[in-house]
């Protein structure tokens, strides 16, 4: 099973879409609200050079935004 981490903010529409996608596909994930967790926010910026959300980490690979095709491929759902 893949290790999945979702970095979000409360107002992010595509973060909610990603969570729904995970639920529909029975994907377990850890979620971090980077508006409240500055340590995680700093890590995301260091690893991706991006400040946009959602950022989805699958087994160490970062996907910026909700890209269904990339996400399905990373999770082996394609």
What is the gist of this entry?
The chain is 40% helix and 22% strand. With 78 residues, the chain is α+β, with helices and mostly antiparallel strands. The protein has a four-stranded mixed sheet with strand order 2-1-3-4, sandwiched between helices.
List keywords for this structure.
single chain; 3 helices; 78 residues; alpha+beta
Description:
Strands 2-1-3-4 form a four-stranded mixed sheet, sandwiched between helices. The chain is an alpha+beta fold and 78 residues long. The protein has one domain: Glutaredoxin. The chain contains three helices and four strands; from the N terminus they run E-H-E-H-E-E-H. The longest helix is centred in the first third of the chain and has 12 residues. The protein is globular. The chain starts with a strand and ends with a helix. 19% of the residues are buried.
């Amino acid at each position: 099973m893949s290790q999945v981490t979702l970095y979000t903010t409360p107002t992010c529409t595509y973060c909610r879409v990603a969570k729904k996608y995970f639920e529909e596909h029975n994907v377990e994930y850890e979620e971090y609200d980077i508006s409240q967790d500055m340590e995680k926010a700093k890590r995301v910026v260091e690893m991706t050079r991006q400040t946009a959300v959602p950022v989805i980490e699958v087994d160490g690979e970062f996907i910026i935004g909700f890209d269904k095709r990339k996400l399905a491929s990373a999770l082996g759902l394609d």
